[in-house]
Write a structure and sequence with these properties.
about 120 residues, flat, Immunoglobulin-like, mainly beta
């Protein structure tokens, strides 16, 4: 038997704070059009305006090589490939998440997670 004790404590109610309205939701201007067992994911830009500094990042214990950001026009597709032994291991990691990052025309950076 482990000698530990679990305790709980009720906290006093927090004072009400002024709540700011959330910014309006933004539709994701992407759709996944291809996914393969070999680690290829292809997404299509389905928005109405060019998106700037589009790039991918891999969150979690995996790794992904760096790529240069690019502008993606409506209807264009971007393909990302997880290559080599590290790529296979990264895509199989239980905490791996591919994140698509881009800037809107007004300069706002947005992120869209894509489950591997």
């Amino acid at each position: 038997m482990n000698p530990f004790r679990l305790t709980t404590r009720l906290q006093p109610r927090a004072r009400p704070q002024t709540v700011r309205a959330a910014p309006p939701a933004t539709a994701v201007p992407w759709r996944v059009v291809r996914r393969s067992e070999s680690g290829v994911i292809e997404v299509e830009q389905v928005g109405g305006t060019p998106l700037h500094s589009v790039r991918f990042a891999l969150a979690g214990s995996g790794m992904l090589g760096l790529s240069l950001p690019r502008t993606v026009l409506p209807g264009e597709r971007v393909r990302v490939v997880l290559r080599g032994a590290q790529g296979v291991r990264a895509s199989a990691a239980p905490d791996a998440m591919l994140v698509l990052r881009w800037f809107q025309p007004d300069g706002t950076e947005l992120l869209w997670p894509i489950a591997l």
